[in-house]
Amino acid sequence: MTFNTKNDDTHYRIGSGLHVEASVQQMMLLGPGFIGLGAEAFLYEQVTGDSGSGAVLGDFKGRSVGVGPVLDYLLPLGARSLLAVEFRWLPELDTKNRLKGDFSWLKMACTF
Description:
The protein has 112 residues and is mostly beta strands. The chain has one domain (17-111). It has strands at residues 17-30, 33-46, 63-76, 82-96, 102-111.
């Protein structure tokens, strides 16, 4: 949940938003490590409207929904270390009163 404060320069306050994500994956043995294949979905819903004297378009509540694939690889590096690589692509499928686009990212982490 995000809570926004009033911008004193523009006299505009963006409403509060709810953000929920869920992911499901299947992990399988691949070589010396594990590969994970799955999907992720998200919902962003602005639960209160925009306000203030700068809100000339009304409450302008935003919404966005996206679903996309997830690919992980986990590689053990000795007894206590692990390398994790993750790729996610989340195209927005339903967008209202927000800029529409796709989210994608590549993450790498190593424990030692």
